[in-house]
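G., the chain you wanted modeled:
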Amino acid sequence: MVPMHILKGLATFTLNLAHDQTAQSRVLAQSFASKAADPKLKERYATCAEHYDHAVDDIEDGKNYLGKGDYNGINTMASAAMMEAGDCLDSFMQPSKDPSVLSDNGKAVEDICSIILNRK
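Predicted structure as tokens:
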């Protein structure tokens, strides 16, 4: 059995990684929204920035739940952050597709949140 302090350290590391990746995705989306020439892409990037803003808040809430030992709360917040990233990715399934690295970052956010949800 893995000691609890090691599991908590791993959870902290993973939440910090998710936070950093999500914050980076938000900055990218904001930057792309300000520079996009295509009005549809501009709107989608702006919407993605909002989704990632919410996801950052969700992950910060997850960190607070970790501090309280509320693992169901962590799962709820990781799931919410994953959904926000997914909503951004889904917006680019139709034309005009995202030519940037934002989709890769969004997929990374989903993958990291999935790790949080699948911890045992």
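The two ends are 11 Å apart (CA to CA).

Shout if anything looks off.
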